[in-house]
């Protein structure tokens, strides 16, 4: 059950990273495209893994790895767009649940994982939950949908690379896909301009916070990847409900302490969010108990 504890720890760290993301993205000079680009660039640090057993499998394996990393880049891009627009609890929950739903769908299509009747009932509960939560924040459905689809594709292809090689190899080549996709965005003049403006106009303290935050997020994702390698990719995804709780609690604690972190706690809205989380939790519980 080591993978279970690793997954919970990963989601707790990711919740902390989300709160800091909201703080950084609240600054008018930092746009989601430049934020996603610099996150991708940090993944180049995985080059240090080369002496520890990284090897070339074949070109098809490379393409799948690159696709996983590229999908992850787009998942981050649309996630950051959603985070910038609305409450962090709303954005992270919508994207997270849609990511789980599409992970299940793509697992059935690509990995040939079983997709039983109770799974459908559980997913209905989860959809009902995010529809409720969606009523409490600004409309970020397009961004959440795009991010959820991309996260689903990335996660399932990541699991495929683990199944056809070892953990270190899969992790390295998918990170190279993320770096490669980040570099490709420089082809577009607008994106290229945004990258250099963000580098020029962002303060040193913000860069330091960004770096520390991405280290936290990197540790979280590394733990998550290990849990995916050790456990079932769909079951690991269902544990995402813990992350929603962590994010919501942190947002409530820091809503008036950290600039940009605001959480609507109007009585009716708070009740709707609570009911939405309960429905999502029931869906996760149904999936987890199978």
Automatic annotation (TrEMBL):
Record keywords: Membrane, Transmembrane, Transmembrane helix
SUPFAM superfamilies: Multidrug resistance efflux transporter EmrE
Transmembrane segments: 6-25, 32-53, 59-79, 91-110, 116-133, 140-160, 172-191, 211-228, 234-254, 270-288
InterPro entries with a match to the protein in the record: EmrE-like
Domain of life of the native organism: Bacteria
Protein name: Uncharacterized protein
Organism: Candidatus Yanofskybacteria bacterium RIFCSPLOWO2_12_FULL_43_11b
């Amino acid at each position: 059950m080591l993978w279970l504890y690793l997954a919970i720890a990963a989601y707790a760290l990711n919740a902390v990273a989300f709160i800091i993301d909201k703080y950084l993205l609240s600054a008018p000079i930092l746009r989601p495209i430049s934020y996603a680009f610099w996150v991708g660039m940090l993944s180049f640090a995985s080059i240090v893994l080369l002496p520890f057993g990284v090897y070339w499998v074949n070109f098809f394996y490379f393409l799948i790895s690159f696709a996983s990393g590229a999908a992850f880049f787009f998942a981050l891009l649309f996630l950051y767009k959603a985070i910038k627009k609305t409450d962090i609890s709303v954005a992270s929950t919508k994207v997270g649940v849609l990511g789980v739903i599409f992970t299940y769908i793509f697992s059935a299509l690509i990995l040939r994982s079983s997709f039983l009747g109770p799974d459908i009932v559980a997913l209905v509960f989860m959809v009902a939950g995010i529809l409720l939560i969606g009523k409490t924040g600004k409309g970020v459905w397009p961004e959440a949908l795009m991010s959820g689809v991309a996260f689903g594709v990335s996660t399932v292809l990541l699991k495929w690379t683990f199944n056809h090689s070892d953990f270190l190899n899969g992790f390295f080549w998918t990170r190279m896909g993320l770096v490669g996709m980040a570099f490709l965005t420089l082809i577009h003049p607008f994106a290229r301009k945004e990258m250099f403006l963000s580098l020029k106009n962002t303060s040193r303290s913000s860069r330091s916070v960004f770096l520390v935050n991405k280290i936290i997020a990197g540790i979280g994702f590394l733990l998550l990847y290990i849990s995916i390698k050790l456990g079932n990719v769909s079951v690991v995804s269902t544990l995402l409900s813990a992350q929603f709780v962590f994010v919501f609690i942190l947002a409530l604690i820091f809503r008036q302490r950290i600039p940009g972190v605001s959480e609507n706690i109007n009585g009716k809205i708070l009740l709707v969010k609570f009911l939405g989380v309960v429905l999502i939790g029931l869906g996760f519980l149904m999936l987890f108990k199978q």
